[in-house]
Specification:
4 strands, about 50% strand, mainly beta, four-stranded antiparallel β-sheet, about 80 residues, single chain
């Protein structure tokens, strides 16, 4: 079994937006996303999708700028 450089395990990110009139809107930015990138051999991974599909949210999750609502992100065996 090869060691993983990055593992994204069943990650979900839900944003809740509040309106000026007191209502709430829930936006599912990422739902049950899983990806594994092995440490060897070196590889290039591309995430592609239409506008609003969650690419930037995924990047922000991996970089640790935001926390996932559910799931886990592991980099070289350490949870982010």
């Amino acid at each position: 079994m090869s060691q993983m450089l990055l593992e994204i395990r069943n990650v979900t990110k839900i944003h809740t937006q509040r309106s000026l009139v007191g209502g709430k809107r829930t936006i599912i930015a990422s739902q049950d996303f899983t990806l594994g990138i092995p440490a060897h051999p070196a590889s290039v991974i591309t995430i592609a999708g239409e506008s609003g599909s969650g690419k930037t949210t995924l990047a922000n999750l991996v970089l640790g700028y935001i926390r996932p609502t559910a799931g886990q992100i592991v980099c070289e065996g350490h949870a982010i």
